[in-house]
Amino acid sequence: MSSQKKIGLALGSGSARGLSHIGIIKELSKLGIEPDIVCGTSVGAMVGAAYVKGNMKGLEEWALSLTKLDVAKFVDINTSMKGFVDVQRFHTFLNDYIASDDDNIETLSKIFASVATDMYSGREIWMTEGSLIQAVWSSMSFPGLFPAIRNDGRWLTDGGLVNPVPVSVCRALGADIVIAVNLNGDIVGRHLDKTGINEIEKKQKIGITQKLSELVKEYTNLPFSNDSEPEEEAPSLLNAIAASVNITQDRITRSRMAGDPADIVISPKLGQIGLLELYRAKEAIEEGERCVQRNSSELEYILDSMLNR
Fold this sequence. Notes:
The protein has 309 residues and is of the alpha/beta class. It has 11 helices and 8 strands. The chain is 42% helix and 12% strand.
């Protein structure tokens, strides 16, 4: 699609749901829609970076190959208590499927930016230059999972805390038309199901609980006892974190998109996919494809009318 007007693609945050961005980008390409500006928050930054680097095929193949055991290998409980993700393994993944440590944003063929949050000031930080890997990693530093990232004298954490769908960034970087992908439309109160836990998940949960209990005992004098179990088990630690962040992001997304409306909003229905359920990539990618297909007539109409003004 050729025009002097620039199309921006704002890829929203959403943890494992963000793999749907792969299907969305593929389907947009089939419609002849190739964005000039790509802005992403959290997982949106990760997929967006893979797209502008030409690594989408490899990322999709990796995602579709994942099993529950593969996902579990990314989790590392240690006494530092700075995060649950094995950062060395994650760094290797980024190098293999997203970009190298030497890639800079300024050298990309498309305009790219990620959104992060200054941990102390709460300010929204736009990563528009410098290391592409640092820009992605900073934007993805989900509280409780990743340690905060030191960048330019600031401690940065997940951009979804301040701007889950970066429409405003696309506009600021010169986009005349913005297509936004909102992954937070149906997440509040979802994926807290207490049933269907298989044996592998039970063992992982027991191991994590034991390690956390040992750490808590080490730093407190509080007694811990399993003599009496409640009739209804409380949500797991990760579910509690996910639900809390989901509520926050849902409210922030509604507010930000009311103030910074996109021209077209794509909202895949993925509330059933949990925080770290990356092994459900096939579901996420296919729903991304279907969501674009459902909106194809509107996409073509709006883009044609706006580009031909």
